[in-house]
Amino acid sequence: MPKRLLLCLMVLLLVCTSCAGQSKDVNIMCLSVYEDTFDAIHRAGVARDDALAPVNCLTEEDYTDYADWYDSMYTGLLTRSDDIDIYWLRSTDEKAYKLLKDHYFVDLSQDKAMMEYYDAMYPEIRDWCTFGDEIFGFPVFIHYPMGLFINEDQMKDVGYTREDIRTMEGFGDFCDAWNASQPTPPIEGKLFLHNYVYDYLLSHYERATGELNLDTPAFRSILAQFGASQYFEYMPDSGGWYTVELDTPIALLTGTPMAYKRQYIPAYFPLLEGESPDTKRNVSVTWCIINPSSRNKEQAFAYMRLLAEASKYDKWTNPLMYRDEDFYASAFLRGTTFNNIYSDEQFEMVGGYLDGFYLKYGFTGYGDVRAIFDLYIMDGNQTLDETIAEAQDLLDTIRQEQYIGED
Amino acid sequence: MKTKSARFIKIKQVPGRRPCRSPYGGSGAPMMKLTQFAKSKPALLFLAPSLIGLLFFYIYPFITGLRYMFMSSGFHAEFLGLHNIMSLFRSELFQTAMFNNAIFTLAVVPATLILSLVFAAFVWESMGAGRFFRSASVMPYVAPTVAVVLLWTLFFDINGPVNQILSWFGAERMDWVGTSRLRWLVITMYLWKNTGFNIILILASMNVVEKEVLESATLEGANAFRRMVWVVIPQILPTIFFVTTLSMVNSFRIFKEAYLIGGMYPDESLYTVQHFMYNQFASLNYNYVVSASVIFTLFVILLVGGLYIVEARSRR
Questions:
Q1: B142: which of A162, A204, A266, B209 lies 20 to 30 Å off by Cα?
Q2: Chain A environment of B91 (Cβ under 8 Å)
Q3: d(Cα B107, Cα B103) in Å, to the nearest integer?
Q4: pLDDT < 70: residue spans in chain B
Q5: Facing residue for A404 by CB, picked from B73, B74, B87
Q6: What Rg value do the Cα atoms of chain A yield, rounded?
Q7: DSSP class of residue A269?
Q8: With pLDDT > 90 as the criterion, what percentage of chain A qualifies?
Q9: B227: which DSSP letter?
Q10: A98 contacts in chain B (CB < 8 Å)
């Protein structure tokens, strides 16, 4: 009797396992805030081609659980679970490089239709999607944490130009002049000073050896400038997020690609004292990547093509990704608020702008080290030497942990 | 016709074996042959929930994970042989972690044993106050670790009461948490928290010491110390071995306290193998997690196995 029972159980298990492989649904793990966007894109896609697979967005609702949610996703990938077909990866995530290095992606260049989109992209953006010789993901969001978008006309009203705010000192003068004559703050959101620190960490991290020397004059200079809190007055109240309307005078926007269509042009965060005018800034990219263990690769590819097509749509939150006007004209998801931004002049300007950014992946300990410097900037309970020593000590321990067998 | 209860009795009364002296089983428990054990269906039935859990949640994952030990990480993992193990042995950080675990065990096990024996003897000899001490000693053990750690970190904070008292005597305030003093702080906390449980175990075994022998020793003129050393301790040796084994195994579980005080990257003096494994897991380096856990398990088996051999020889 027990043998028969065992046999029945095994048969049941086999049936369940074989059925699991026949699912046509595409499961995407993404953050809940973008669920609506995905839903809109998908509905539009299905209306055009009803053969597209149903899509389930497995989302995280609570940002406090965000890290745990990501951890469970990584564990699923590493144990070759096929629960997720498409997953999100953020470049600044500590595990991003590790997943790419260990090849937890499907090379998208094997799909000819997808390659048409990549071929039309700005070369910089295409490079940001490339690992080795392979294209690992599609960029769903490109964020420029140290990018500004400025309204030159409004700046001129208070007697300043784009070049005047290239330095922190000039930026401060402009803010003072603006505040003296305008009822609204000069900048939407915040000029996040921490980004200068994060930028240094990412740009100076040596991936090959895991080394990052924090005790340098350049980094000390950045911290010293913030430690003195001399720039805090330029940061509006944290509650001061304003909705930008065309008739609302706000000269600067931070990291808002949508600004292209509102006569704002792109610029960079001001340079700190001692920074070279050629200094490039970090860009943060979020990609959609196909799980190599997925059983629905065909459907997942279909969905990726839909994403790529949707990225032509001006409601999509990316700035211009393709530099070909005709390419946009073919967009089946074309919106109603086009502002004729697809001109050669605009394409050139965006191309030049992208040249001022680089992509670096997060590294193990990046979050912890960031937290140490956040505390230094905001609380100021520790000295500069103590802060650097603490962060350096942590990084050295992590380096020893992560680079075993590679010395 | 044999009844189930009769079979139970037969198992307990294995000819040639000494009856269990310790109320906790331990080394004094009758040793059954495996075949007899297997025949005992009721015993298996009672053990089944625990055995199934052990099998599915510990042994099965451990064995299936062993392959990671010989592989590189990644979707297209390659066979690396013993590379991961050798890399771990060469890693200074892993050596530090193993050293810290060894230091902790070497410090904690004898200290727990001596303290438990001394306090148990004191309580046993002074039966009047014994009830109070018995209850008091077990209080830290039942207190939640998180609460204990919070209390201790408050006490030993740079502005806490301990530094306050030190400053009254002209000593400088000390950083107990951010320096290598943390190791000794955690050891002291561990002793304070866990000694009570061992005292209860030893006290219970002292209570079954043969009274006639004790009375005869007293009549012969032996004082309390001599009675303890020459009469009581030899009779409770199995329990002492049991307490030693338990302390040794528990000493490897110091991670909880260390993590709550120092986080994932505490001072180097408190960085243990568990920190190493946890951080490797969080960094998705499963090959190193498995390799480290195998090395660590072998280390624990060797230590505990060695202790059992010593015990077996001492019994003979």
A1: B209
A2: 400, 404-405
A3: 6
A4: 1-35, 37-38, 127-130
A5: B87
A6: 24
A7: P
A8: 29
A9: I
A10: 73, 283-284
Please report the sign of the dihedral spanned by the C-alpha atoms of residue A98, residue A102, residue A103, residue A104.
negative
- What's the maximum distance between 2 C-alpha atoms anywhere in chain A? 91
- C-alpha distances out from residue A273 to A168, A169, A200, A217, A281, Å: 8, 9, 14, 12, 15
Do A52 and A62 contact (CB within 8 A), yes or no? no
Q: Is the Cβ–Cβ distance between A78 and A294 less than 8 Å?
A: no
> What's the order of all strands across the beta sheet hosting A147-150?
A187-188, A252-254, A147-150, A265-268
How far apart are the C-alpha atoms of B97 and A47, rounded to whole Å?
59
Residue A69 has pLDDT above 90, yes or no: no
Phi and psi torsions of A360, nearest 5°: -130, 145
Give me B279's structure tokens. Answer: 């951080």
Which range has the top average pLDDT, A290-304, A387-401, B219-233?
A: A387-401
Say yes or no for a CB contact (<8 Å) between A394 and B75.
no
> Closest residue of A to B94, CA-based?
A401
Measured between alpha carbons, how far is A296 from A31 in angstroms, rounded to an integer?
21
CA distance A79 to chain B (A): 9
SS3 at position A352? helix
Give B-chain residues touching A404 at CB under 8 angstroms. Answer: 87-88, 90-91, 93-94, 288
Contact between chains at B87 and A405 (C-beta distance less than 8 A): yes
Return the CATH number of B84-315, one of 3.40.50.970, 1.10.3720.10, 3.50.50.60, 3.40.190.10.
Answer: 1.10.3720.10
Full-model pTM:
0.78
Q: Do B283 and A95 touch (CB under 8 A)?
A: yes
Radius of gyration for chain B, computed over Cα atoms and rounded to the nearest angstrom? 24
Other CB atoms within 10 Å distance of the CB of residue B236? 26
pLDDT band at A337 (very low <50, low <70, confident <90, very high): very low
Average pLDDT over chain B, rounded to an integer: 83
Residue B294 CB neighbours (<10 A): 18
Alpha carbons A211 and B67: distance in angstroms, whole number: 31
Calpha distance B113→B116 (Å, rounded): 5
Residues of A in contact with B87 (CB under 8 A): 404-405
A310 contacts A44 by C-beta, under 8 angstroms: yes
Q: How far is CA A352 from CA A280, A288, A346, in A?
A: 12, 26, 10
For residue B246, the tally of other CB atoms under 10 A from its CB is: 18
* Helix-then-strand count for chain B, H and E: 17, 0
β-bridge partners, A87: A29, A289
Give contacts of A292 with chain B, Cβ < 8 Å: 75
Mark yes or no for CB contact B276/A401 under 8 Å: yes
CB contact residues (below 8 A), chain A span 150-209, against chain B = none
